[in-house]
Design brief:
685 residues; alpha+beta; Beta-galactosidase, Chain A, domain 5; Glycosyltransferase; 2 domains; 16-stranded antiparallel beta sheet; 3-stranded antiparallel beta sheet; 31 strands; globular; 6hp_glycosidase-like_sf; hydrolase activity, hydrolyzing O-glycosyl compounds
């Protein structure tokens, strides 16, 4: 339980003390004390409106917090991405329920989304005094805005005002519905007023209100993109309109006595309650499709729900994380922009969801990828990442006016690594395509030609150097991980040919290249003195935990003496030449190799979970390693936050670091749990 005194000036909330809500278009980060700390609207890659997590003064926030000392608890409703924050003290208990509504069926993109952020405040015991502040900071806190109060004709039977925030490129309005859920109880009074935060660097007025609520009183705030009003005629609720919105007709009738321009429903408590239930039903129905029956099911389901939030429904693209520029080391410079679609991250994400039976997401992403294959670079290559809309342009910009989380500068948007040569992406992509056509939709001839050309490109370029998975900003090298994944790309192409009997004029060349590449890796990446596979052909004395992928992609048997020797060296502490500290694994030793970035970082969650899976596979033949895998996985779960979410890295002190929610981490958590549970069950361990 977290205890906070609101009379003390608020500092940065730790990265781990946040949860996420989303609607498959964008996502919002909600802190443990009830503040919206990160929110880009309408899409993942839109400029932020709230970014308090990156600048506690001028980043922008939407907070609902008690005015007296309180304790907090936070949880998701069961099998859902609806968040509940509970404030408790001796006088009363308050629930703040946050969600971005989902009102269409899964995969039904014809239902236009409601770009609403809904925050429901309800006292469930005693009395409570709270303060609401809504302080948007448009376009990453770079744009000025105006704030005005207007009559709110969207709330049925009430004569109240709403707030409109208007910036050059976006208009939002803040409305509310107040109600009493118990008989003979008055509706709560809500008096919103201006709030001047110009001294803190805000470029337009905010608003605030103080609420005094008793048990049974409820206020729901709705922050939304203003609907366009261009003289459209009034419309009554019809079945056609209900189908277009993806909302049952009876819900429209309950929520509106009439409809206004652009399908803008009149609000009342019944309509909001129906939106809540439709959203809760959506998430429950989705997670029920999971086929996972193994151990650690709660952690696996939460990871699946988190991964689903990273999917941009209109195109099927998957973002690496909905946040940006959260530091990999407090005060450091490794602060990167992640609301883009990496081929690597996306492929691993779909691999994990396929394992759980979610093939629809894989089919949607593969369509996104096939569109990229139809628009390759002039030399036949793919970019390592794209925008969620399929664009190639992601210029890296530093926002020098933002202080960064706990002073961690620079704050970056865009990503300069977009034009890197990272040849490993072809292996991750081909593995995803192989699994997608195996468990989802088979490849047609036209798509097979695209895939075949991709493998031919790999065959022609597999001996070139690159910048590999960690996106180093130094010199190109022959990274071992990249060579392994290039082998995977060719191997999966061969598997598809063999399984589907598809035409392949270069079949013999593929076989020869794959086998030669294997021999090359075993010769040039192996350090016979240290008895480890090194980070690259050029630096075999540098250890890199990315080589743990070898048995996971079936490059090498997990009991192979060379791999086991490498694994055991990685498991040693950094002081003894390894990469493991407190059962957590570093990517590599930043003091031993120049990655062109500089600064420190924490242990990498992805690498820890790869290590768990490598230990699991090796543990089938060496039981003490399986015991170590179980202990390491159980230890890792302790570092997930209070609602079961994971970040990218973990500090020496056990604090969460990097962007949150991190897709890569939840992907490998699912994979590690799946294989560990299956192995333990099979061996009756």
């Amino acid at each position: 339980m977290n205890v906070r005194d609101p009379t003390v000036e608020r500092d940065y909330i730790p990265i781990a003390d946040h949860a996420i809500i989303g609607n498959l278009r964008t996502a919002a980060l909600i802190s443990l004390d009830g503040s919206v700390e990160s929110y880009c609207i309408p899409n993942f890659d839109s400029p932020s409106v709230f970014a308090r997590i990156l600048d506690k003064y001028k980043g922008g926030h939407f907070s609902i917090t008690p005015t007296v000392p309180f304790a907090t608890k936070q949880n998701y409703l069961p099998n859902s991405n609806i968040l509940q924050t509970k404030f408790l003290n001796d006088e009363g208990v308050v629930n703040v329920t946050d969600f971005l509504p989902r009102h269409g069926n899964d995969g039904d993109s014809s239902a236009p989304p409601l770009f609403w952020l809904i925050r429901r405040v309800e006292v469930i015991r005693g009395v409570a005094s709270l303060r609401m502040e809504c302080a948007p900071a448009f376009n990453y806190a770079r744009d000025e805005h105006t704030t005005e109060f207007l009559p709110d004709d969207s709330v049925e039977y009430c004569h109240q005002k709403k707030v409109r925030f208007k910036s050059p490129n976006l208009e939002l309005d803040l409305r509310y519905v107040s109600e009493a859920t118990l008989d003979n109880l008055p509706e709560p009074e809500v008096n919103i007023d201006y709030l001047d935060l110009s001294k803190e660097g805000h470029l337009g007025p905010a608003v605030c209100c103080n609420l005094s609520l008793v048990e049974g009183q409820r206020v729901t705030f709705i922050l939304r993109i203003c609907p366009e009003r261009v003289g459209a005629p009034e419309a009554r609720p019809t079945q056609e309109l209900a189908d277009r919105l993806g909302i049952p007709l009876e819900v429209l009738i309950a929520g509106a006595s009439k409809m206004r321009p652009q399908d803008d429903p009149l609000l009342n408590a019944d309509f909001l309650e129906q939106l809540f239930h439709l959203t809760h039903e959506y998430w429950n129905n989705w997670i029920r499709k999971s086929t996972y029956q193994g151990s650690w099911r709660e952690a696996v389901n939460r990871s699946a729900l988190a991964l689903k939030l990273l999917i941009y429904e209109p195109t099927g693209a998957v973002v690496a994380s909905p946040t940006f520029s959260l530091p990999e080391y407090i005060g450091g410079t490794r602060n990167w922009y992640y609301p883009a679609s990496w081929i690597r991250d996306s492929s691993f994400t779909l691999y994990a969801l396929i394992r759980l039976g979610f093939t629809q997401e894989a089919n949607a992403y593969l369509e996104f990828i096939f569109d990229r294959l139809r628009d390759k670079n002039p030399d036949g290559s793919l970019q390592i990442m794209y925008t969620i809309h399929g664009g190639k342009d992601l210029p890296e910009i530093e926002l020098s006016h933002l202080d960064g989380h706990k002073g961690s500068k620079p704050v970056r948007i865009g990503n300069g690594a977009a034009n890197h040569t990272q040849l490993d992406i072809y292996g991750e992509l081909m593995d995803c395509i192989y699994l997608g056509q195996k468990f989802g939709r088979p490849l047609g001839y036209d798509t097979w030609v695209l895939v075949r050309d991709l493998v031919d490109y790999v065959v022609d370029h597999c001996r070139e150097p690159d910048l590999s998975i960690w996106e180093v900003r130094g010199k190109d090298r022959h990274f071992t991980y990249s060579k392994i994944m290039l082998w995977v790309a060719i191997d999966r192409g061969i598997r598809i040919v063999e399984k589907r009997s598809l035409p392949c004029p270069q079949r013999s060349v593929w076989y020869a290249t794959r086998d030669a590449l294997y021999e090359e890796i075993m010769t040039k990446a192996w350090n016979p003195t240290l008895k480890v596979f090194g980070q690259s052909y050029e630096e075999t004395d540098v250890l890199d935990s990315a080589v743990l992928i070898m048995p996971l992609v079936f490059f090498m048997a997990p009991a192979d003496p060379r791999f086991v020797s490498t694994l055991k060296q990685i498991l040693k502490s950094p002081e003894r030449g390894g990469l493991t500290s407190n059962n957590l694994v570093y990517r590599y030793d930043v003091t031993k190799t120049d990655d062109g970035v500089g600064g420190k970082e924490g242990t990498f969650c992805l690498c820890t979970l790869w290590c768990v899976e490598a230990l699991t596979r090796a543990g089938e033949y060496d039981r003490p390693l399986l015991t170590r895998a179980i202990a390491m996985f159980e230890d890792f779960l302790l570092y997930s936050n209070h609602v079961g979410l994971c970040t990218e890295e973990i500090s020496d002190a056990g604090d969460a670091l990097g962007n949150a929610v991190q897709g890569f981490t939840h992907v490998t958590l699912i994979s590690a749990a799946y294989n560990l549970s299956r192995t333990v069950t099979r061996l009756k361990y």
